[in-house]
Every structure is written in structure tokens, then in C-alpha cells.
UniProtKB/TrEMBL annotation:
<dbReference type="InterPro" id="IPR015854">
    <property type="entry name" value="ABC_transpr_LolD-like"/>
</dbReference>
<keyword id="KW-0547">Nucleotide-binding</keyword>
<dbReference type="Pfam" id="PF00005">
    <property type="entry name" value="ABC_tran"/>
</dbReference>
<dbReference type="InterPro" id="IPR003593">
    <property type="entry name" value="AAA+_ATPase"/>
</dbReference>
<protein>
    <submittedName>
        <fullName>ABC transporter</fullName>
    </submittedName>
</protein>
<dbReference type="InterPro" id="IPR027417">
    <property type="entry name" value="P-loop_NTPase"/>
</dbReference>
<dbReference type="GO" id="GO:0016887">
    <property type="term" value="F:ATP hydrolysis activity"/>
</dbReference>
<keyword id="KW-0067">ATP-binding</keyword>
<dbReference type="GO" id="GO:0022857">
    <property type="term" value="F:transmembrane transporter activity"/>
</dbReference>
<dbReference type="InterPro" id="IPR003439">
    <property type="entry name" value="ABC_transporter-like_ATP-bd"/>
</dbReference>
<dbReference type="GO" id="GO:0005524">
    <property type="term" value="F:ATP binding"/>
</dbReference>
<dbReference type="GO" id="GO:0005886">
    <property type="term" value="C:plasma membrane"/>
</dbReference>
<feature type="domain" description="ABC transporter">
    <location>
        <begin position="4"/>
        <end position="233"/>
    </location>
</feature>
């Protein structure tokens, strides 16, 4: 059994404020992710790449299709039909999501944001603090920023904090939406090291990339998206 089997996935948005206009972001997506594998997806802006990741993470509820996932918590489960409670549990313990956009509660410092992830997953506070510091250093987030609020961080700083938050829990399955966007070469190296490290430990991943050189060095399989459809390359 693969880790994730997506069949006939489609997502259509209904824009009620525009007289019911519809936008079909992705259509008839079929994808198999084996345990421990890394799939890379490229494609033009607006092709529907992020929509696939957001359906898997259940930020969006798919319009059609199934996404059967081998969960540690629940066994085989269709993420398209899982309850909100099941999704919350799976996000907490199994699936990480990284993007450049950061949604944090106000007045939570960068260090606390990483510590919280670990504590929510069951770590002790002292251990969480040490691990959080180590991973923020790994991703080159300046220690002078650790005790400040991330809402003023640059795009690259937000991304590095997001990477630290998602990767520190060593999730079983990681979704990466442009994990190297707006990073300098040193930070890209840190992301690559962490990806290779997670791969060695068996983490399965799906990532969206505009940086094809970076992608080709880390993924096992590549797909290209065009007009909402997924094609092999
Ligand atoms: N919440 C939403 N409501 C309405 N339309 C949406 C929504 N999310 C995405 N879309 C539309 O779906 C299409 C695909 O968007 P998506 O973000 O998946 O593309 P993408 O390939 O990830 O693009 P990019 O590389 O620019 O991030 C776009 O036309 C977008 O406007």
C-alpha cells in the first residue's frame, strides 16, 4: 500500500460574489506517493499546484475524488472525507505543511512558535526549548530575532521559521509549497540538508518548486502542472 493514493481529485471554487462564477483549479488528479518517496511538482503560476497541497492538508475540501492516506492514528483514511477532528489530529502528529505565508497568533515569538509545535506533539518544555534553538540555528534565523514577533519578518525569514516549525517534529509526511522561494544559497543548502536528513529517516514528501535545479537534486519523481492537470515529465 502506498502512503497516499489520490484518485480523480478536482477542486472548483464558486465565487458567490461574482454571480456564481466558477474557477476549476485542478481536475482529475491521480497521484501515488510511496512510503519514503519525494514527488516534485512544477508548473506555471496559477496552474493549480498549491490547490493540490491544500486539498491534501484539507485547507480546501475537494469537490470530487479520494485521497486515501495510511495514517498512524487512524489506519487507512480518505482525507477528502475525514472529520475535522481527525484532520486536526493528523496535522498535529503526522503531516507538516510549509509555505512562505505564516499564520501565527499575535504576541508569539519565533522561538515560542517552534517550541509550541513540539510541546503540542508531546515534548517536555526544556527539551522543546533546546530543540527549537537548534533548528532555528540550522536554518540561519538570527538569534536576535528569536525573541521577537514574526509578523515583521522578511519573506525569507518567515519561510525559514515555517521550515523550522514543520521540520522540527520530523513529520511522517511533509508538504512543501516553494520551500526555497526568496532564500539565499546558504539557506537553500540548509533546506537541502534537512530534506535529505528527513528522507533518510523515511519522511515522505510532496513539494512544489520553481527552482528546477534544486528540485531535481532532491526528488524521486517529477510532474508538471498545466491548466489544472498533472502531467509526467
Ligand atoms: N480560495 C480560492 N478561491 C478562488 N480561487 C482560487 C482559490 N485558491 C486558488 N484559486 C484559483 O485556482 C487557480 C490555481 O491556483 P493555485 O494557487 O493552485 O496555483 P499555483 O499553481 O499554486 O500558482 P502559484 O505558482 O502562482 O502559487 C488560480 O486561478 C487561483 O486564482
Amino acid at each position: 500500500m502506498p502512503l497516499l493514493q489520490i484518485e480523480n481529485l478536482s477542486k472548483t471554487f464558486h465565487l458567490h460574489q461574482f454571480e456564481g462564477k466558477r474557477i476549476t483549479a485542478c481536475t482529475d488528479i491521480n497521484l501515488t506517493l510511496k512510503h519514503g518517496a519525494f514527488i516534485g511538482i512544477t508548473g506555471k503560476s496559477g496552474a493549480g499546484k498549491s490547490t493540490i497541497l491544500k486539498c491534501i492538508y484539507r485547507t480546501y475540501i475537494p469537490t470530487e475524488g479520494t485521497m486515501v492516506y495510511e495514517s498512524d492514528c487512524f489506519g487507512r483514511i480518505d482525507l477528502a472525507k475525514a472529520t475535522e477532528r481527525e484532520i486536526v489530529d493528523i496535522r498535529l502528529k503526522e503531516i507538516g505543511y510549509v509555505s512562505q505565508f505564516l499564520k501565527l497568533l499575535p504576541r508569539i515569538t519565533a522561538l515560542e512558535a517552534v517550541e509550541q509545535e513540539l510541546v503540542a506533539a508531546g515534548s517536555h518544555v526544556a527539551a522543546a526549548s533546546a530543540e527549537a534553538r537548534a533548528i532555528l540555528s540550522h536554518f540561519g534565523l538570527s538569534p536576535s530575532l528569536w525573541d521577537t514577533y514574526p509578523n515583521t519578518f522578511s519573506g525569507g525569514e518567515k519561510l525559514r521559521l515555517n521550515l523550522a516549525r514543520a521540520m522540527v517534529k520530523r513529520p511522517k509526511f511533509l508538504l512543501l509549497d516553494e520551500p526555497t522561494a526568496s532564500l539565499d544559497n546558504g539557506s537553500k543548502e540548509a533546506v537541502r540538508d534537512m530534506i535529505m536528513d528527513l528522507k533518510k529517516q523515511g519522511t515522505s514528501m510532496i513539494g512544489i518548486f520553481h527552482d528546477l535545479d534544486f528540485m531535481e537534486k532532491v526528488v524521486d519523481e517529477e510532474y508538471n502542472m498545466r491548466d489544472g492537470r498533472l502531467m509526467g515529465v
